[in-house]
Request: fold
Amino acid sequence: MRVLLTGGAGYIGSHTAVNLISDGNKVLLYDNLSNSDASVINGIAAITGVKPTLIKGDVLDEIGLVNAIEKFKPDAVIHFAGLKSVKESSLKPLEYYSTNVGGIVTLLRAMLKTGVNNVVFSSSATVYDSRQKMPVDENGIVGNAANPYGETKIICEKILADIWRRYSLNVTILRYFNPIGAHPSAMIGENPVYPNNLAPYITEVALGKREYLGVFGNDYPTVDGTGVRDYIHVCDLAEGHSLALKNMDGLKVYNLGTGKGSSVLEVLRAFCNVEERDIPYRIMPRREGDVAELVACCDKAKKELGFAPVYNLTDMARSCLAYARKNFSGKIK
Reply:
C-alpha cells in the first residue's frame, strides 16, 4: 500500500512511518516542519533500511497537496498534521480553528480532486465530554470540549462524517488518548520544537535541562489530586494505524488507549523508578482547558482491529529517557 502521511515528520507520524515501512508499505511524508525536524527521516532510515521521501509543505496549501498526491499516487492518507496544545489552543483559538479545521477541509478537497478514497484521521480523546463515567467508549457523549483544541477535533469529525455520507469515502477516525514513549532503538522519539506533553518536560528535568516539573493542579477528584490520563506507548499507537489501514470500509471510529488511567504523579514516579532517584516537581495552579480524568475503553478496537497494546508505563518512561540521553546530550546543562 502507498500511504501519504500529513504531519509525517512529527512524533506520531514518524513512528507510524516506521511501522508502515516495516510492514512493506511505501510512505510519503508531507510536513511543514513547524514543530518537527527533517532529520527524523535519518532515524526512520536507520530503523527500517528505507529512507522515506519528505516534502516540506503546508496542509493548508491545496495546490501543494494535489501536486504531492498526483506524483505519489497514494492508496490512503493518514492525516496527522495540525496544532495540538491544549494550553495554547485557549490562548490562540483562531489559529487552531484555522489550521485544524482548515487543514481537514483542504486535504479533503485535494483527495476528492485526485480520487483518493481512504483517509485515517488523527482525532483525540478531548472530543469526549469529561463529565461522563470513565472509561469511555466510542458511544460516549461527544461535545462540550474543555478547550478549543478539542472543539477543532469535534468539528473535523463532523466534516468527515458529512463527506463520507456524500462521497462514500472510507473514513477511519482514531481517537488517541495520551501518547508517550519512543522507539526502542532510541533513533526516533518525541522531540518537539515547543513541548506540549508531559513526558518531554519530565525528561528535561531528569537530564538537567529544567529545574523542576510543574504539575498543574493537585485538587482534582482523582487518586492523588493530579490529572489522570490513559497513556499509550507511541509504538502501540503506530500499530493501531497500520491495523486501521487494513480495515478501511465506510465510516469507523475507534479509541486507541490502554484502558488504564495514570495520574501525573504516577507517571512521574515511573520515571523516578527508572532513574532510581527523585525528580523534582512543584505544584502549580490548574491549567486552563485541563480536565480531571480521561480514560479509554478500547474493546471495539480490540475486537474489530485486533488492537492490543504491549507496552506498560515503565516501558514508556524507560524509552523516553533512553531517547533523550541519546539525542539531547549536547543540549543538557
About this structure: The longest helix spans residues 93-114.
